[in-house]
Amino acid sequence: MWHREAMTSASASPALTFLGTGAAGGTPGTGRSRRRESSALATAGAVTVLIDVTRDLPTQLDRIERIDGIVLTHGHADAIGGFATLGRWWRRRTTTPIPTYASAATIDAVRRRFRRLQHVAFVATAPDERRRIGPWDLVAVEVPHARDPVRFPTYAWRLTASGRSVTYASDVARPTHALAASSAGSTLLAIDGATYRRAISSHLRIDRDLPTICRWDVRRIALTQIGRSAPPHDRLVRIAADLCPKAFPAYDGLEVAL
């Protein structure tokens, strides 16, 4: 079952649906603790924007009726591994390529990995360069993540529609002033919550970094990219709230009205 968490009383608000909230390869568990690779779908009216094209797309597509545009965070397999699946889905529905926004290096990574890409129309996008998909205004900021940032630059994306914004930063090595500034005023910040009581160089650590992020000018904070070191979901809900009253762990299928 998919659930909706209302952040406003406006039924027509833009929304973000978490298609997956797990680490690369997925995060095992039961119930809400079982997580697919991290991805999300931003919806405003009838217009939808897919954020990342994961290897779990065959299952995630069960909840997607249309895709009007795509944004990619980076070129690792867990963010781009589903383009072949996307092509099969696209060929059953339309002949119009889907606009796909990403850094030039991420586009190169997709092209190296897949040969048949008639279903997408890539648009190389630099940080702070604005794009638009229907009512959605899109802008990216580069964040630290990959060990090879030249080959795999990583973006956090801010999507704004009807005066409501979500900043999606699923892969972040450390909090930065640039990300704090870019996300300022966001209704929701969906951010890397990969580890708990364990440090790795390419991702945030919930117990160390969430108190810092809690001070940022965002209304609510949803943890995604949640890995194996995190406790079961119900316990993680309590831990996140203790660290930051406006934070909560997302789970696969959660829909948040912005």
General description of the model:
The chain has 258 residues and is of the alpha/beta class. The protein has one domain (3-25, 34-257): Ribonuclease Z/Hydroxyacylglutathione hydrolase-like (Metallo-beta-lactamase, Chain A). It is 21% helix and 31% strand. It has seven helices and 15 strands. The radius of gyration is 17 Å and the shape is globular. The two termini are 20 Å apart.
List the helices and strands and how they pair.
Layout: E1 3-5, E2 15-20, E3 39-44, E4 47-51, H1 57-60, E5 69-71, H2 77-80, H3 83-91, E6 98-102, H4 104-113, E7 120-124, E8 131-133, E9 136-143, E10 154-161, E11 164-169, H5 177-183, E12 186-192, H6 206-213, E13 218-224, H7 233-243, E14 247-249, E15 254-257
Notable traits:
258 residues; alpha/beta; eight-stranded mixed β-sheet; seven-stranded mixed β-sheet; 7 helices; 15 strands; disordered N terminus
Count structural domains.
Answer: 1
User: Pairing-aware structural class of the strands and helices?
Assistant: alpha/beta
Q: Write down the Rg.
A: 17 Å
Beta content comes to 25-35%
* End-to-end C-alpha gap: 20 Å
Spatial sequence of strands, sheet with the most strands: 1-15-2-3-4-5-6-7
Tell me the major beta sheet: 8 strands, mixed
Helix content: 10-25%
Low-confidence regions: 1-11
Question: Can you count the helices?
Answer: 7
